[in-house]
Design goal:
18% strand
């Protein structure tokens, strides 16, 4: 009996070691906010990626264009991007393999002390933005609606992480940013800084989509890894989209970003968090494709994208559908 037990134990250990050895290591890029982490961090904490044989290591970046650059130099396998960086996908630099959520956290903030009351008052003012991101995108919308052009402002291009410091210090008069930086800036201003506009103001012409991306070459060589990652994301999305789990997910996000839990929890209002069933419906009835089409048209209208591209060229709808099976 002892020999039999030892044999069974040895076999179990062997199988365990084999399973561990077979796990794929993937480096995944995120930005330090709830929207970027809500699903992927849940997938790690709940063991959904492990169930798919994936060992996920997270790496923090300031914005989507920087994430795509890191993917191009080979240090990152998969990544999350906000709305603005989707123009790089349209340009062919990356493919979208999973829709994440529709956000409403982008805003243009302004200082009353700088003499700004309306968007038209941005003329001649120092305005900070992060190039190639949703920051630049919403600033262009804001200027267009006010009858202003890029040449009407003193535009200061800076890293997304520097926008808050520049605004709080008074180095700039206004800035285009996103949560949680927007909340930090407003709270630190003692009533001086306010929001001129947000995604909601432009909902008639643009959809503020966030997505998970992969380089075309990596996808062609690792389709199974991307498929398994997507399946795990769907499981994580179902857990994290349930309001009953918001506090738990916020606690995980706060720990990852070294934030207070309340800061992370406040960000649950930054988007509509879909379940996998809702994503499946959007995919199957064509609404998801229309979202990406509307987003692309928004880029074209603001001059960020010059030529229309079929969304099927850069959105991997087949991967999304296969992951639901």
């Amino acid at each position: 009996m002892k020999k039999l037990f030892a044999l069974v134990l040895a076999l179990a250990l062997c199988l365990s070691v084999t399973a561990f050895a077979a796990a794929e290591d993937i480096n995944v890029a995120y930005m330090p906010n709830y929207a970027s982490l809500w699903s992927v961090l849940t997938g790690i904490q709940q063991g959904y990626f492990a169930e798919e044989g994936l060992n996920v290591t997270l790496y923090e970046f300031a914005d989507g264009p920087t994430i795509i650059a890191a993917m191009e130099n080979g240090s990152i396998s998969l990544g999350y991007i906000g709305p603005g960086a989707h123009k790089l996908c349209i340009a062919g630099r990356a493919n979208i393999f999973c829709m994440s959520q529709i956000g409403n956290s982008d805003t243009v903030l302004a200082s009353k002390k700088a003499g700004i009351e309306t968007a038209a008052d941005l003329k001649g003012k120092k305005v900070g933005y992060a190039s190639g991101t949703s920051s630049e995108m919403i600033l262009r919308y804001c200027l267009n609606d006010a009858g202003l052009t890029w040449d009407d402002i003193e535009a200061y291009e800076m890293d997304a992480s520097a926008l808050a410091n520049a605004m709080i210090s008074g180095t700039i008069d206004a800035c285009a940013c996103w949560s949680p930086s927007s909340g930090i800036i407003i709270n630190a201003s003692n009533g001086d800084v306010f929001s001129l506009c947000s995604n909601v103001d432009f909902a008639d012409r643009d959809v503020s989509l966030a997505s998970w991306i992969v380089l075309p070459k990596y996808y062609e060589e690792n389709k199974d890894i991307v498929l398994r990652f997507t399946r795990a994301l769907y499981k994580a999305i179902d857990y994290a989209s349930n309001p009953e789990n918001f506090e738990q997910v916020a606690a995980w996000v706060a720990a990852q970003c070294a934030q207070d839990v309340d800061v992370a929890l406040n960000q649950t209002g930054d988007a509509a968090w879909p379940s996998s069933a809702e994503l499946k419906t959007l995919l199957e009835n064509g609404t998801m494709a229309s979202y990406y089409e509307v987003q692309q048209q928004g880029f074209i209208k603001t001059g960020a994208v010059e030529q229309e591209v079929p969304v099927e060229n850069y959105v991997l709808f087949d991967n999304m559908a296969e992951a639901f099976k």
